[in-house]
Specification:
Elements: E1 2-6, E2 16-20, H1 27-61, E3 76-80, E4 83-86, H2 87-101, H3 107-128, H4 137-150, H5 152-156, H6 161-182, H7 190-199, E5 205-206, E6 209-217, H8 220-227, H9 235-242, E7 253-258, E8 281-283, E9 286-296, E10 299-300, H10 307-333, E11 336-337
Antiparallel strand pairs: 1-2, 3-4, 3-11, 5-10, 6-7, 6-9, 8-9
Helix pairs in contact: 1-10, 2-3, 3-6, 3-10, 4-6, 7-10
Length: 341
């Protein structure tokens, strides 16, 4: 970096000489910059994927995907695999979305629902043509009926029962197909878990936590009497003899537990010093006497702490990639058009 130094004489060659200046950035600043750059890169990648999908749609139907709001309910708005989609079908899907979400209609919603409807119909028509699939409309409808029976009040109160059955049938078929033929071979290696965790450490921070022993008693008078007798040394013995809590057999040992995992009255533990004993604390479970064993400071967790979450994230990432590939193949194999008006 350079700095302009004013010598006071604008006519002098030295008036605006460049002087090197050393700038030292703290590790915290560098960390924040890296995190921000990662998020920007992720947004760029997502945007690129959406552009690719949009171009695929446009390669099939032309540059216009929006609808003319003046069209009649019986008008055909799209043809997928030789099957017509009418304006009333789209309005039905929009109405379902509004009913499920409990929100008012918005201009953008119709476009979103149209894209979802076209995508679902394309995938559905594609899987019906797959030689590996023994597809049966009757079996699909029976599965839709089973879903309806799982929540009859919700589904039977919806308009156009036939539309509900068709949508559930298509969704169930797509879900089964993707699980068996799209996602079935996805595996997650240990190195992939480590790489993902190291790239996303800021997402896996361990909150502050405490480990402690507790004695839980049903009556306050009894709790106060035992509180006067217990010490850090004999606490586990008293817990085994008198506590009514399930962990009594382990000397009342619990933790590490975070604030979110503890009742409000237990938050006092985060302000105490280790090996100190609380006064009698009341909760809906009884009267508690607590010995604080250790405070675990907040910080970066290890892969072992978050293995299940990391594996789920990596698997979901791979599933999204495979799903996009499947959708691209389907869009090139199923005839798809929007009639011009």
């Amino acid at each position: 970096m350079v700095e302009l130094v004013d010598t006071g004489d604008l006519k002098s060659p030295e008036a605006c000489r460049l002087v090197p200046v050393q700038v030292r950035l703290s590790p915290l600043v560098i960390y924040v910059v890296v995190v921000v750059l990662k998020k920007i890169l992720a947004l760029i990648i997502v945007s690129a994927v959406m552009i690719v999908l949009l171009r695929l749609y446009r390669s099939k139907v032309g540059p216009e995907l929006h609808l003319n709001h003046a069209i009649a309910a019986s008008d055909v708005i799209a043809v997928v695999g030789g099957v017509e989609i009418k304006a009333r079908d789209l309005q039905f899907e929009v109405d379902l979305q509004l009913r499920d979400a409990g929100v008012e209609d918005v201009p953008e919603l119709q476009q979103e629902v149209l894209s979802e409807l076209l995508e679902r119909r394309i995938l559905y028509e594609h899987l019906k043509r797959d030689a590996r699939v023994q597809f049966s409309e009757e079996k699909c409808r029976r599965q839709a009926e089973a879903l309806i029976m799982s929540d009859p009040v919700f589904y039977t109160s919806a308009p156009r029962q036939e539309g509900i059955r068709r949508k559930l049938c298509e969704q169930a078929a797509i879900r089964r197909y993707s699980e068996k033929h799209v996602f079935a071979n996805i595996s997650v290696a240990e190195q992939e878990l480590e790489d993902f965790f190291n790239r996303n450490r800021e997402r896996y921070l361990r909150p502050a936590a405490v480990s402690f022993r507790q004695i839980v008693l049903p009556q306050e008078r009894q709790a106060k009497r035992i509180r006067a007798l217990v010490t850090a040394e004999n606490f586990s013995s008293y817990a085994r003899q008198h506590s009514i809590a399930p962990e009594a057999e382990n000397g009342g040992l619990l933790g590490p537990l975070t604030k979110n995992e503890l009742p409000q009255v237990f938050h006092v533990l985060f302000k105490m010093r280790a090996q100190r004993i609380t006064k009698v604390l009341k909760s809906p479970y009884g009267f508690h006497i607590i010995l604080l064993l250790r405070k675990h400071p907040a910080g970066s967790g290890s892969l072992a702490d978050f293995r299940a979450e990391v594996e789920q994230a990596v698997r979901a990432q791979k599933q999204r990639a495979e799903y996009r590939k499947w959708l691209e193949v389907a869009m090139h194999s199923v005839s798809f058009s929007l009639p011009r008006r």
